[in-house]
Amino acid sequence: MAIPVIDFSKLDGKERAQTMAQIANGCQEWGFFQLVNHGIPLELLERVKKVSSECYKLREEGFNKSSPVQLLNKLEDQKVEEDAVKRLDDVDWEDVFFLQDDNEWPSTPPEFKETMKEYRRELKKLAEKVMEVMDENLGLEKGYIKNAFSGSGEHEPFFGTKVSHYPPCPRLDLVNGLRAHTDAGGVILLFQDDQVGGLQVLKDGQWIDVQPMANAIVINTGDQIEVLSNGRYKSVWHRVVATSNGNRRSIASFYNPSFKATIAPAATKEGVHALYPKFVFGDYMDVYVKQKFQPKEPRFEAVAAMWKR
Fold it and tell me: Could you list the residue ranges forming a coiled coil in this record (predicted)?
């Protein structure tokens, strides 16, 4: 079993209907799919790989002094019986930083800023194309999701990029790469390592590998798409398994609602009840940051109560 791989370029040809159906299936049955021939220049993706790897080399010493490394070293030094060693269940074996339009970016290597600005522009355009496909598949007017995320055009949707590396881990039995969770936001676009695996998706009770694929962009749907679609599209549990070989690169971009946007299920057919509450996305994020690695249903209940106040 493997997550769907979809040729995005076929939306413009004779196989449009089939491609639309494949994307609908990816959203409904998996919550994850991989796009190839997505329109992002391969030369740009090569530059992104290069500057990200160079940036990590400058950060590697810092990671080696970080809390996850120190905690694992301390655990290994403890002279206790093997079956008494506790896993580090609240730690992620990850080096990470975030890129937004209004925060400070790494200044080295010199090409980092220019390359990542160009990459983010391309990813944002791709996200909006994917959302328009979702609009059409859900029977919504073109631009519905983008409009909802912007508070009917009053606010700018949030677009952030998380640059992660998962270095080789000496004790895979004791630590996670990244703990299992669903994503809080809208549409997530991941440019993952094409050599080192580790990302897994929960499907029918089984953890399925998201196979590394050169120059593909992995798409997944977040909690807000689940709400807007009234549950037709699901945000799914996923995790990163630590590996002992290779340093896995992961660059995830998040096209999310503005924190001021009100999110609710799109108007449903007569007789179909809204299965999710109406809430302000900023309120949802306040709950999410405290409950990221827990089931999402209590998060929806919490924001429903906040809206009724």
Answer: none
For 112-123, letters b (16+ CB in 10 Å) and e give beebbeebbebb
Identify the CA nearest to 34 among candidates 186, 195, 177, 209: 209
Distance CA 101, CA 96 (A): 17
Q: CA-CA distance, 107 to 62, in Å (whole number)? A: 16
User: Could you tell me if 156 and 257 are in contact, meaning their C-beta atoms sit under 8 angstroms apart?
Assistant: no
Question: Dihedrals φ, ψ of 219, to 5°?
Answer: -110, 135
Cβ neighbours of residue 251 under 8 Å, at least 6 residues apart? 48, 52, 119, 161, 162, 163, 164, 190, 191, 192
Tens-place pLDDT, residues 23-82: 999 999 999 999 999 999 999 999 999 999 999 999 988 898 888 888 888 877 765 555
Q: Report which DSSP code applies to 170.
A: S
pLDDT of residue 253: 98
How many CA atoms does the CB half-sphere of 293 hold within 13 Å?
Answer: 10
SS3 at position 214: coil
Q: 129 to each of 38, 79, 187, 214, 289, how far by Cα in Å?
A: 10, 55, 11, 21, 28
Q: Is pLDDT at 237 greater than 70 in this prediction?
A: yes
pLDDT at 85: 64
Q: What is the mean pLDDT of residues 188-206?
A: 96
